[in-house]
């Protein structure tokens, strides 16, 4: 076949009569379909499924897989999303039939091991966070945000307080205001100062008796640890509010400090970023939340409890906000997190954050001379460079650099976020990349910036698609295959 199979659909490769398997003729009595179903229940003709040999199907999907970028095949310096390599050992352990073959409707007595594992995972996450109680039920980080804010809302209602506002820094992840709005709060933005940290004067001006929660990511999205965090927590607590931590960047502080110790009252984790698990492709994910003791009664049900030596799911929680996820959440992702934490142990988790911060600072030192980093010579797990100067002098934008990196075999960093940095390029190497990989990436980045502007503005040049109309794709997506007429 002259055509590139990896660019075609299975329907395009279909040939009439071709089969992956041929079954022997039926040698037992059969019942006509129309005697079981009524005529109105039957299709007029068979669905137009592709007809292919097994080798055609295998080659098609294998070829497609080689066109994908992945952490297994490419360096992913994707800031904010922590796209680090995750050990295959955890994949294997989570796939053991003792875990994977459990059914959520089984009686509690038949999955005692899983319940004990999840109970222990709650305890470990509680210790890592420095908080008193953990719920594993939320299905993603943003879902954890929403769940925690619903817990906060119930807490204030129970205490007779009608607090309506959530304060959010202007450098926050976009999910923060979205979650606050869905939880019924009004969002108030707090400005950043020239250092990229919370502007304390602006914060003080916006604190009043209506403030329910202050949501902060620390380290923040610029890659800086806000050393004002204890003072911020004190101001919010004095006003009767709660401190929420977006745990997306926990990979930077594992084992170094605990959010509960610097004033956080509730937070979520992203296991796929911090504790191992598949990331991308739409899930499944998980977003465990951790809270202080006074918020524990409001956590979703069911809760895992031990009674008479048996582990069980406890639904008798009168102040609970109720279930936020079917069954007990995405337990396959949670098993991976458990295996990751147990494999590393306390010292191992500390080394994860140590090396994540070391890698980020080393890469920053390699690129800052030709790609300015507006907020300093030091960072935590990630840093935000800016192509603003290139845009002004040569018309080269951050998107042009990102697209050209695809030609060189690298996934692009996060671009145009956070919004407080013009022409932003957020870069996070994670702890799992080698010194050589970081040096090669910096060299390629330098080479790209020195290339002609016209070459960059038309990149990528080696992929099947160059620059699709992203606005049209978002507004008028084609989500299913349609047979040609």
TrEMBL record:
This entry's Gene Ontology molecular function terms read: glycine binding; glycine dehydrogenase (decarboxylating) activity; pyridoxal phosphate binding
Can you state which reaction this protein catalyses? N(6)-[(R)-lipoyl]-L-lysyl-[glycine-cleavage complex H protein] + glycine + H(+) = N(6)-[(R)-S(8)-aminomethyldihydrolipoyl]-L-lysyl-[glycine-cleavage complex H protein] + CO2
Which one Pfam family would you cite for this protein? GDC-P
The domain of life for this entry's organism is Bacteria
The N6-(pyridoxal phosphate)lysine modification is found at 273
Q: Tell me, what does this protein do in biology?
A: The glycine cleavage system catalyzes the degradation of glycine. The P protein binds the alpha-amino group of glycine through its pyridoxal phosphate cofactor; CO(2) is released and the remaining methylamine moiety is then transferred to the lipoamide cofactor of the H protein.
* Record protein name field: Probable glycine dehydrogenase (decarboxylating) subunit 2
Source species: Kolteria novifilia
